[in-house]
């Protein structure tokens, strides 16, 4: 097997992703995607791809998409050798072969998240008593001041496992909200402190084609926690996402996020999988 750095081998890349060349070109253009990629080639056929992206917290993340697990380790080795900084990846707890390929190349566990799923009906019953505390309002993303919403998102991320050190990037934020193909402003809800106009917390749900809606984030600024704001945001988000014709919604929550885990359990959520974030540390 050989590993080729992707330059313009579109047919090989499409084959390695298991899609047609036309679908690949459409996807690359739609997402304005020029991430570095490596293709695993076996007997002239593309059998797997590793791609790397950098998020605004300056973390390099690797993603693998393979037709055959023999491509895992050579791809991990080639892609991680291209960076001098720490490299992160995320693997499903049940994908032992993929995890083994990363650990064989020096990756170690950073943290674990559990994947929860809950029924909309059960969640709505559990949250029926959630009330917005006096002195707060809820607005949706299309009513929000873009700069304040962006600042809130950055501040809240500091308390979310894996997002520590996140330094906002307005362009990235725009691409991952209004610019995202499945963005529905009604499901991006912000709590506002009416006394001073401060944005105090947010919830967001993603409407994913062909998959259950995903609770992307629920977070409240520290000074506003414990008075029902989180439950009120969640209740509204569940109400909106329940109109998308799915029975359940899912979301990932870090093992140490005690309050969010309590909310999942209260909503009748069950753990369906886990995700492990692995890191290859450089310079330890
Ligand atoms: C999760 C979070 C949004 C809850 O916000 P909040 O405004 O404090 O929520 P509420 O006051 O409505 O409380 C909601 C529930 O959280 C749980 N909870 C709140 N504070 C808690 C605490 N100190 N210990 C344990 N559970 C707690 C309880 O189950 C509570 O429900 P109850 O009051 O009916 O018992 C908030 O803790 C937060 O922002 N955490 C950091 C971000 C995060 O980890 N988000 C999850 C990953 S996306």
UniProtKB/TrEMBL annotation:
Which UniProt keywords are listed?
Transferase
Molecular function in Gene Ontology: acyltransferase activity, transferring groups other than amino-acyl groups
Respond yes or no to whether keyword DNA-binding is given for this record: no
Domain N-acetyltransferase per the UniProt entry, residue ranges = 139-284
Domain of life from the UniProt record: Bacteria
- Which one Pfam family would you cite for this protein? Acetyltransf_1
Q: What InterPro entries has UniProt attached to this entry?
A: Acyl_CoA_acyltransferase (IPR016181), GNAT_dom (IPR000182)
Entry protein name: GCN5-related N-acetyltransferase
* Species this protein is from: Stackebrandtia nassauensis (strain DSM 44728 / CIP 108903 / NRRL B-16338 / NBRC 102104 / LLR-40K-21)
